[in-house]
Amino acid sequence: MTATRTPSDQSTTKPPRRPGDRIFAGSAKGAGILILVILAGVAVFLMAEALPALTAPAEEIPGDEGLLSYIAPLLFGTLLSAVIALLVATPLAVAIALFITHYAPRRMAQGLGYVVDLLAAIPSIVYGFWGIFWLAPKLVPFYRWLEENLGFIPLFAGPTSSTGRTMLTVGLVLAIMILPIISAISREVFRQVPTLHKEAALALGATRWEMIKMAVIPYGKSGIIGGAMLGLGRALGETMAVAIILSVSGGITFNLISSANPATIAANIALDFPESTGIDVNTLIASGLALFVITLAVNMLARWIVNRRADFSGAN
Amino acid sequence: MSVQTPTPAPTTGASAVSRPQQQHDRSLPRWVPLAVFAAGVAVAALLSALTGFNVVLFVVYAVVLGTVAVYVVSRVTEGRRRATDRLVTSVVTAAFGIAMVPLVALVWEVVGRGIERFDGEFFNSSLQGIIGEGGGAYHALMGTVIITALTTLLSVPIGLLAAIYLVEYARGRLKRAITFFVDVMTGIPSIVAGLFAYALFVLIFGPGIRLGIMGAIALSVLMIPVVVRSAEEVLKLVPNELREASYALGVPKWRTITKVVIPTAIAGIGTGVTLAIARVIGETAPLLITVGITNATNFDPFDGRMATLPVYAYYQLTQPGVPPEFAIDRAWTAALLLIILVMGLNVVARLISRFFAPKTGR
After folding, report:
1. Which residue segments constitute the domains of chain B, with CATH numbers given?
2. What is the three-state SS of chain B?
3. The domain A67-314 is classified under which CATH number: 1.10.3720.10, 2.30.30.60, 2.60.40.1590, 3.40.50.150?
4. What's the mean pLDDT in B133-144?
5. Is B190 on the interface with A (CB under 8 A)?
6. Whether the predicted interface score ipTM is above 0.85
7. Surface of A (260-279) touching B: CB under 8 A
């Protein structure tokens, strides 16, 4: 749009731009560049404050075994909780997106969309409250059942936590929190599916599900993947819900229903930071830097996938 | 789990397409699947009553049995393809229902527990000198308002100008870079934003620093990209004809933007900013590590710790003191207040877009 206008501005008889124009354009551009600077600043300042921990001798790091063995269980906990959340949330979110775009009565669809989006509006600390007081106790009998009947799988080896404050509970709460993100993006791509594709499938006698399977899902696949990765990014960085719900002790374990769980990076920072001083603070910031790098990578990949889809569908 | 049940579908669908319309006449009337599903739920209720009532188990039983019942009935009367279709319909609807369970349960729980201390004292007093009963969150509420207002003051000009740059001025590689990194920035974990503000201020003021303004800067990192994205979307919707008409009258570009483009888009911008405020007002983690908590009232964001509502709720819950129940009650009321604030802002955002939308809009 702007490309056609700027040349015509300059082709008039007064080549120098008015000062108001120059100031305004300059400050707008400055704001745009400032955003890039802030993002770079996040990386630079985190690195500056993480440096003392990176260079410190191993015995000064909490746990006395160096930075890597401090971060490793946290990283494991972060990835484990996020992967559980992703496995639970993705199919559910896609189904919800399908329900809203293709199954719900047309007039209700927008309202239902808002309702799902409300899940994203609830502050994460409130999810923490709800998770520890409502969900966790209700899941205990279910975990007992898992331990008794599926205990041979290492994931459910137990012993079952009596409070329900386990890795699996955290994964489920995170799943609820990332549900609206994945479903919003899936909804967006499902809505972009060309009507002709769908009508063609229906005209060939396909049932609604066959039409979805043949026309909607293939078209929306990269949108679903991108949305899932954005959800993954959110789950990786989620702090307060995990900090409140998870009962933390011990290191790396795949046991999802016991009371000994590795913490996640974000929750560990929230729990330890207020009482930390000296090198401990730098260690926590170093773990935060690791989290930042991981989420940045996940988000960049996700955006790349989603944007590629956008370019693609723009051509249609 | 139940969502993965349609996996047998590929074989059904593929083989079925070759013989279309076989069962066309025998499709069930509308009420039958619903009735069958209800019957399944009834069996589930019976089952869960026999095995000891538990909400989670009951929901699982109900969804699975209801879906299976519909599938079987449809399979017998309508054939495999339609049965699969009905199965998927049940599964997809159930998925939506499953998503509603936490929303309803959460709101119910928070309202039920929070209403207890939702009284005048909660809004009028701080925690100074309070042990046990009484006390309130006046200081925390004011702290949240001050820090959120500061965040808005920092984020909206930057975000709006950046959006104007992206829509009206930017071209080429810089535009693509900013758009991409704004998107990436929306995914920064909130705790990392808090660490950034802390690291920034530590370099200036030395370790252990806690200031209200640090919290505002941390929240701005989270809010700016949201403002940019929403403002960009609405500015793009402003019809080009309006800009061209303005240029034709000899109005400079910056006057065109401030007098024509922004007034046209103001409703959308207002909605976007309100939603962005709603996004940051409940953030806990960055405030926890940059602003800290205090029991006294401190309204000066440039001097020392401040209390904010989310952090207040967190500490009241996790460090309730003795006896714990009073602090825990206060925590729930603070959570309720947070939900009310966020939902209220969401409603306000929708109202803005409904009532202030330009009459000439698309």
Report:
1. 2-115 (no CATH), 123-355 (1.10.3720.10)
2. CHHHCCCCHHHHHHHHHCCCCCCHHHCCCCHHHHHHHHHHHHHHHHHHHHCCCCHHHHHHHHHHHHHHHHHHHHHHHHCHHHHHHHHHHHHHHHHHHHHHHHHHHHHHHHHHHHHHHCCHHHHHCCCCCCCCCCCCCHHHHHHHHHHHHHHHHHHHHHHHHHHHHHHHHCCHHHHHHHHHHHHHHCCCCHHHHHHHHHHHHHHHHCCCCCCHHHHHHHHHHHHHHHHHHHHHHHHHHCCHHHHHHHHHCCCCHHHHHHHHHHHHHHHHHHHHHHHHHHHHHCCCHHHHHHCCCCCCCCCCCCCCCCCCHHHHHHHHHHCCCCCHHHHHHHHHHHHHHHHHHHHHHHHHHHHHHHHCCCCCCC
3. 1.10.3720.10
4. 88
5. yes
6. yes
7. 266, 269-270, 273-274, 277-278
